[in-house]
């Protein structure tokens, strides 16, 4: 059995080899370096090596490096640990940092109750681990269960006052003394209304359950470990019912020593997503959605060229994920497998234990550790640290079992080792990952709020008006009883129908009050809910079948009127305002600019400059220097321009963090190359360099190769010496490369101690390339007279500018820089500042300015005119995004969210309360500016100055919030709602927007590249942002105006008949006698008036062209004038007048002695009055309106012969009946119509002005 011994460093400078990385991270007692390590802190820092390997000390920031560390009492890992919610005892800190064995932690209670609030959890990956202690991995978006559906829906329905009122009225009819007419007249309408509403809720929730079931049933491969005494295959691992061979099979089931866990059989089994448990090891492949929060353990490359070389195990442990469904950023994120687990055999993964922090909603923070605890295999001889035994790459994980007890087999974990639920694996590799959080404890679930039942503002306004009507009803009932006197008379007949002498029953005064309340219940028409709900369904039907916004889906059909009341629009950026499709549009090289068709000239320069025969090639056409020789026959000016162009293209092809991957799609015969990077800008630039002839063919942590697209030959090979990643603070990215002329095996190590003569014979020049924002690069590059002007021109075009420069370094200069930079990286105090100072001193000054690039983030179709129209409609627009500050600023300018010349006030990186107060004071004097704020500063404002901040922010014309978490987006939406009491619309397209969408009054989801999660959770789903304007300005307007008019007419219909009942009761000596009974009462609210009143859902005051031409019309809707207290009381006056005229004149013309004749006249006039009032209120006639008016009139007159129980039919066919009906109708209708015409002439409404009528 081989022993796992640290090899001595071959480098005299103290630089350890890549193989030393594993042991130094496992052995915190090793100080690192040839000197044997120093004291605590220094030893920790020296021992640490970036996982990117040799010569990559600066590839990761010092902060990230600290998080991954496993030692150092005061190191950053310890500091990050103390920020955990349940930090507690020092013992817990020791366990989490991996400095104590799992047995010690277990003995001292580390496993006692890992799920208690704020405590860490210890997850064993062995079979039958800790999965049962944690919640199941179930996605749940539904609102109800079979047991809670009826109680919750009924509670919600009866929270509306008029529903509760009608329930009490219906229940009162069970008391004989209060019964008036038929019991079904009051019970059936209520049941009908509730059945419609409950049916809609059930349908929507069943659809949500169906979507949840699909997600929960998605199959995933999980590693299964069995102790069957069956030797493991050496060239493949059994996957379910089949065996996988090749690179992936070797990595999963082979590749180690033969004696490594020979009694363990590793296979994969399929599990549904809902059956996954904490501790399961997933097998994830490209484009697989991560079903739970996981820690990456091992990556296995599927690259064809990698497999041909015989290695499935990717030594770097790198994989890329897409997090657009979590934080809105579509650029790929690099994730790393810990060096400890990457080196292990798959069968040894069962002996791992992960210690993780408590569940949290922080997607950018994670602290944990992982330890390896192999089973005992008998006595072993402890190796001596520092011995000369060499560790080969084929050393298996069984060798780890030979580690002495004093050597730690643990590593710290950070967010770089994780992949959260709903992220997607982007790399063409197989990734093994262990589940640590499931179901409701995942980051995605904790950042998503529960869906709520949304109630429109119109319904709340109608509910308030209903309360007024109820008070009016109660007051009227008491007044009528008071006029008679509060007497407890014996039951005696009153004025009644002679044919039904027992109909009237008088009694105690309180009984009369209750009977009057029942009689006047029509004032609060229960059909109002039926009409409004049917109207909402009609509006949803119109929206979904609008050919102008194809693909729109209405998922919440209860709030279409809210589309017409929106005053604040909160929008995501990536995929919502933009297509998330970057393209390099323009490049400027100082004297000439290239764009569009001129890019063909750039391609010609590249083809000539990098041809196999033309250049300083010493081996196979590979360039040893960027100083490329040009054709001498060309003119001097053209040579200079060609040289400039080639230099800037080469710089762009090298200065990036892009990795090419090759994969063969299903059904394709040839492999295709795709690019992976953490920034879409860089991918766009590398694609552009390929389009002009220079392709990135290979990149790893040590070097890059560039290919000529035409010939396919490698023309540039460089060794990567240093990488300086882009940061929001630095706003620039740099790289130091060494041009290589020979084959890869001939590349010398600059820091390896070779002689200068040897180096000069095999190496090319060393160059430092850098690209960044013009604001920082202008002081780094050499003096020039065109940079500021050209950057300004590109910015005005909405392009994202990058300035590119370079600097040549001698070997001696680079070695001097490298030693000082390494020394600065070992500091524990002011590390970032010192490293930056060294870079600035040696590299970042007097760079040769090569050129400026302009990259366009393509906007969605018609975004600019859409935003302008919405602003003119009075809607204030906020952009909330998880993207960078610079990116958000560029998009805001290009989308015209920020008007030309408008001042943009930026607030970023605020940490102190006094600085936040100063920023607020500045904003008070700049209310015409646009605010650009990052998530960190926003959190400070919301904690310290919530009311002051929001009171100022809502006054600004535009607000842009960057680096927002999903929770912050939702908090901002709720805060605006609570402070302004206005309607909020939120629109987004990613899973990170779900919380914001659900917190809004109106949630709109876009079906886009980021998936369908937002569209499924939204109230309305659209396919493009420009569809939102039609949804709001046209459909929102129609829905609100129609519902307002519909509600007014339904209330008018109930008020008129109630006034008629009041007049009759007064004439009946204040007795609670029913004027209209049975079918007359039911038919009036349904068959005889419902169709004409409901046809108002087809009315429109302006056409779509005028609504878009005059968006200011929308602004009036937000004021709520269509249904206000003023319009309500106008309709009350009209209803009172018409009711008094109809019933009063009927009693005068016919008399109370002829009850059935009087009912015939008054009821006929009542129906005709309602039909004609609807006709007078229609603005734009529709065919179905005419059909409803004429059809209802025909139905009424045709049904009169069936009303012999209530009408005197012989009297109905007489001239006396006809002239009385005509005269009463004219007196009832003409005065209100005349008053309306005069008012409209004196003060015409806005829609009449734009229509010219």
From TrEMBL:
Binding site for Mg(2+): 572, 574, 989, 993
Cell compartment(s), UniProt: Endosome membrane; Membrane
Bilayer-crossing regions: 147-168, 180-199, 462-483, 1076-1098, 1128-1152, 1183-1204, 1216-1235
Name used for this protein in its record: Phospholipid-transporting ATPase
Any one GO biological process: phospholipid translocation
Biased composition (Low complexity): 383-396
Keywords: ATP-binding, Lipid transport, Magnesium, Membrane, Metal-binding, Nucleotide-binding, Translocase, Transmembrane, Transmembrane helix, Transport
EC number(s) from the headed UniProt entry: 7.6.2.1
Xref: InterPro entries: ATPase_P-typ_cyto_dom_N, ATPase_P-typ_P_site, ATPase_P-typ_TM_dom_sf, ATPase_P-typ_transduc_dom_A_sf, HAD-like_sf, HAD_sf, P-type_ATPase_IV, P-type_ATPase_N
Residue positions of the active site: 572
Class of this enzyme: translocase
Binding sites annotated in the UniProt record for ATP: 572-574, 682, 726, 771, 800, 881-883, 963, 969, 992-993
Domain of life: Eukaryota
Organism: Tuber magnatum
Short name of any one Pfam family annotated for the protein: PhoLip_ATPase_C
Topology relative to the membrane: Multi-pass membrane protein
Chain intervals with Gly residues compositional bias: 30-44
Any one GO CC term of the record: trans-Golgi network
Biased composition (Basic and acidic residues): 96-109
């Amino acid at each position: 059995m081989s022993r796992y011994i640290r090899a001595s460093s071959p480098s005299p400078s103290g630089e350890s080899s890549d193989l030393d990385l594993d042991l130094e991270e496992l052995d915190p007692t090793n100080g690192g370096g040839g000197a044997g390590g120093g004291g605590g802190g220094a030893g920790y820092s020296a021992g640490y090596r970036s996982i990117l390997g040799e010569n990559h000390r600066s590839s990761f920031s010092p902060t990230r490096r600290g998080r991954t560390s496993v030692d150092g009492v005061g190191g950053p890992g310890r500091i990050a640990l103390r920020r955990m919610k349940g930090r507690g005892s020092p013992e817990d800190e020791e366990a989490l940092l991996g400095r104590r064995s799992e047995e010690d932690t277990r003995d001292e209670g580390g496993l006692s109750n890992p799920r208690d609030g704020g405590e860490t959890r210890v997850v064993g990956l062995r079979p039958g681990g800790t999965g049962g202690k944690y919640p199941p991995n179930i996605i749940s978006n539904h609102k109800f269960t079979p047991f809670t559906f009826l109680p919750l829906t009924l509670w919600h329905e009866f929270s509306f006052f008029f529903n509760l009122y009608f329930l009490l009225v219906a229940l009162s009819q069970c008391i004989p003394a209060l019964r008036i007419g038929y019991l079904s007249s009051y019970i059936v309408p209520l049941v009908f209304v509730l059945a419609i509403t409950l049916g809609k809720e059930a349908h929507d929730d069943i659809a949500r359950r169906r979507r949840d079931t699909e997600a929960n049933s998605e199959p995933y491969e999980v590693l299964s470990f069995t102790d069957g005494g069956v030797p493991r295959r050496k060239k493949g691992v059994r996957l379910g019912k089949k065996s996988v061979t090749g690179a992936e099979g070797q990595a999963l089931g082979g590749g180690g020593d033969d004696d490594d866990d020979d009694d363990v059989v590793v296979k994969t089994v399929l599990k549904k997503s809902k059956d996954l448990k904490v501790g399961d090891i997933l097998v994830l492949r490209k484009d697989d959605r991560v079903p739970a929060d996981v820690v990456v353990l091992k990556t296995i490359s599927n690259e064809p060229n990698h497999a041909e070389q015989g290695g499935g195990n990717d030594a770097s442990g790198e994989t890329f994920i897409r997090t657009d469904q979590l934080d809105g950023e579509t650029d790929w994120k690099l994730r790393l497998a810990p060096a400890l687990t990457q080196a292990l055999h798959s069968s040894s993964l069962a002996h791992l234990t992960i210690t993780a922090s408590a569940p949290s909603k922080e997607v950018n923070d994670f602290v944990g550790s992982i330890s390896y605890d192999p089973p005992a295999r008998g006595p072993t001889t402890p190796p001596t640290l520092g011995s000369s035994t060499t560790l080969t790459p084929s050393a298996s994980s069984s060798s780890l079992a030979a580690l002495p007890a004093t050597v730690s087999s643990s590593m710290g974990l950070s967010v770089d080792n994780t992949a959260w639920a709903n992220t997607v694996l982007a790399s063409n590799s197989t990734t093994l990952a262990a589940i640590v959080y499931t179901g409701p404890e995942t980051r995605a679930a904790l950042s998503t709020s529960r869906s709520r039942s949304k109630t429109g503002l119109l319904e709340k306004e109608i509910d308030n008006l209903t309360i007024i009507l109820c008070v009016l009803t109660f007051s009227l009932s008491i007044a009528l009883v008071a006029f008679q006197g509060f007497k407890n008379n014996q039951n005696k007949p009153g004025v009644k129908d002679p044919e039904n002498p027992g109909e009237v029953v008088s009694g105690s005064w309180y009984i009369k009050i209750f009977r009057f309340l029942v009689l006047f219940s029509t004032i609060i028409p229960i059909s109002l809910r039926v009409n409004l709900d049917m109207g909402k369904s009609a509006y949803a039907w119109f929206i979904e079948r609008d050919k102008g916004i194809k693909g729109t889906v209405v998922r919440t059909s209860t709030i279409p009127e809210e589309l017409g009341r929106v005053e604040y629009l909160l929008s995501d950026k990536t995929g919502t305002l933009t297509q998330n499709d970057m393209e390099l549009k323009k490049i400027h090289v100082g004297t000439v600019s290239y764009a569009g068709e001129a890019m063909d000239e750039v391609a010609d320069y590249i083809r000539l400059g990098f041809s196999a025969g033309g250049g300083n090639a010493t081996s196979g056409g590979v360039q040893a220097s960027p100083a490329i020789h040009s054709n001498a026959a060309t003119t001097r000016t053209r040579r200079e321009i060609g040289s400039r162009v080639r230099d800037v293209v080469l710089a762009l092809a090298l200065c990036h963090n892009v990795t090419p991957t090759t994969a063969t799609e299903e059904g394709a015969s040839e492999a295709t190359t795709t690019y992976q990077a953490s920034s879409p800008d860089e991918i766009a630039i590398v694609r552009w360099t390929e389009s002009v002839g220079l392709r990135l063919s290979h990149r790893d942590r040590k070097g890059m190769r560039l290919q000529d697209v035409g010939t396919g030959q490698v023309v540039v090979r460089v060794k990567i010496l240093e990488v300086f990643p882009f940061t929001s603070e630095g706003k620039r990215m740099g790289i130091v490369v060494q041009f290589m002329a020979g084959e890869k095996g001939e590349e010398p190590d600059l820091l390896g101690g070779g002689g200068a003569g040897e180096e000069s014979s095999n190496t090319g020049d060393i160059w430092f390339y850098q690209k960044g924002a013009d604001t920082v690069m202008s002081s780094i590059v050499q003096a020039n007279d065109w940079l500021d002007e050209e950057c300004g021109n590109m910015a005005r075009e909405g392009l994202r500018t990058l300035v590119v420069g370079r600097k040549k370094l001698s070997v001696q200069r680079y070695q001097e820089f490298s030693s000082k930079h390494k020394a600065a990286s070992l500091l524990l105090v002011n590390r970032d500042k010192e490293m930056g100072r060294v870079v600035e001193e040696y590299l970042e000054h007097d760079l040769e300015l090569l050129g400026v690039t302009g990259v366009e983030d393509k906007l969605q179709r018609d975004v600019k005119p859409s935003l302008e129209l919405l602003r003119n409609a009075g809607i204030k627009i906020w952009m909330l995004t998880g993207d960078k500050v610079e990116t958000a600023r560029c998009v805001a300018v290009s989308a015209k969210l920020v008007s030309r010349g408008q001042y943009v006030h930026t607030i970023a990186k605020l940490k102190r309360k006094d600085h936040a107060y100063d920023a607020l004071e500045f904003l008070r004097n700049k209310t015409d500016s646009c605010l650009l704020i990052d998530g960190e500063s926003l959190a400070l404002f919301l904690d310290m100055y919530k009311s002051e901040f929001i009171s100022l922010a809502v006054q600004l014309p535009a607000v842009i919030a960057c680096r927002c978490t999903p929770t912050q987006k939702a908090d901002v939406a709720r805060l605006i709602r609570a402070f302004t009491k206005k309607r909020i619309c939120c629109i987004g397209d990613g899973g990170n927007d779900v919380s914001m969408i659900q917190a809004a009054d109106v949630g709109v989801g876009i079906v886009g590249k980021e998936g369908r999660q937002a569209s499924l959770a939204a109230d309305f789903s659209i396919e493009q942002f420009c569809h939102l304007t039609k949804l709001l300005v046209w459909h929102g307007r129609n829905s609100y105006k129609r519902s307002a008019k519909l509600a007014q007419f339904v209330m008018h219909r109930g008020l008129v008949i109630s006034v008629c009942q009041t007049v009759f009761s007064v004439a009946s000596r204040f007795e609670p006698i029913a004027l209209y009974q049975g079918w007359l009462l039911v038919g009036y609210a349904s068959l005889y008036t419902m169709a004409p009143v409901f046809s108002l859902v087809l009315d429109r005051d302006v056409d779509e062209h005028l609504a878009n031409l005059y968006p200011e019309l929308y602004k009036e809707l937000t004021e709520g004038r269509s249904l206000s207290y003023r319009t309500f009381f106008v309709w009350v006056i009209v209803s009172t007048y018409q009711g008094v005229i109809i019933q009063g004149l009927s009693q005068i013309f016919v008399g109370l002695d002829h009850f059935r004749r009087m009912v015939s006249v008054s009821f006929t006039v009542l129906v005709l009055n309602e039909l004609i009032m609807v006709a007078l209120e229609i603005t734009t006639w529709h065919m179905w309106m005419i059909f409803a008016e004429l059809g209802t009139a025909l139905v009424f007159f045709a049904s009169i012969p069936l009303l012999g129980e209530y009408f005197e039919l012989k009297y109905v066919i007489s001239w006396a009946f006809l002239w009385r009906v005509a005269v009463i109708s004219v007196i009832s209708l003409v005065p209100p119509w005349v008053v309306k015409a005069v008012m409209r002439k004196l003060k015409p409404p806005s829609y009449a002005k734009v229509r010219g009528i």
